[in-house]
Amino acid sequence: MSEESYANNSKSKKLVLITGSAKRLGAATALKFAESGYDVIIHYNNSKGEAENIVKKIKQLGAKAVMIKADLTTELDIFVSDVINSELVKKRGGLDVLINSASKYEKVEFSKVTTEMWDSMHGINSKAPYFLTQGLLESLKSVDGCVINMVDTSYQYPWENYTNYCASKASLYNLTLSLSYELAPKIRVNGIAPGAIMFPEWIEDEDKEIILNQIPMEREGTVNEIAETALFLANGPKYITGQIIAVDGGLK
């Protein structure tokens, strides 16, 4: 980094890119980082209205935000280019934090999973984080950035009828550990494994009850608890890399 770039960098706020940040967990994480002084790049695909709302809230918090639309299964290269050439990345001189939060989740029996369903699931859950990290590597290196992957407790404790989903998250788990070796010491790579956080609307009450009865903390987790964990990994001790933090209420 040139002296001029370093000077600009030292005066600007830190910058985070969060995929899938128009709704749910990603949106909560975006607001948490904005509250903590970060500028934010919001990624969305179909949820334009929700993305606009999050950008508005971030700006009300006194931070800067831009939103970038992309289908991560077909437009990865375009998305990477849009990020690198965005005003916020240019001003910062790099990207401090990449949070791979976009995820696909569905319940399908093993015998009914098609190759198309496999490609769609793994395209979002493991391929996109792989190639986003690769494409944004120099932007991350320029400010000693870090990567945070949203894994899942299922990488270690898989569930019946979710083989496709669990396999994709196991791939992301391995990618997290592998990159923590390969990208050190310039870039730290960690993961978060959420447990029962924001059940999808289509999950049956009986299934919810079965899961909640296994949790020592006796409750569902909150998106804010995931966001707080992500902020800790971004700001916390710089000696932490290659870790997967389970935020699961003690569920095993």
Main traits of this protein?
disordered N terminus, 7-stranded parallel sheet, about 45% helix, alpha/beta, 10 helices, single chain, about 250 residues, Rossmann fold
Largest sheet: 7 strands, parallel
How many structural domains are formed by the residues?
A: 1
Record the strand order, biggest sheet: 3-2-1-4-5-6-7
Total number of helices = 10
Give the SSE string: HEHEHEHHEHHEHEHHE
Structural class: alpha/beta
What can you tell me about this protein's structure?
Helices cover 46% and strands 14% of the residues. The protein is of the alpha/beta class. The chain has one domain: NAD(P)-binding Rossmann-like Domain (Rossmann fold), CATH 3.40.50.720. A seven-stranded parallel β-sheet has the order 3-2-1-4-5-6-7, sandwiched between helices.
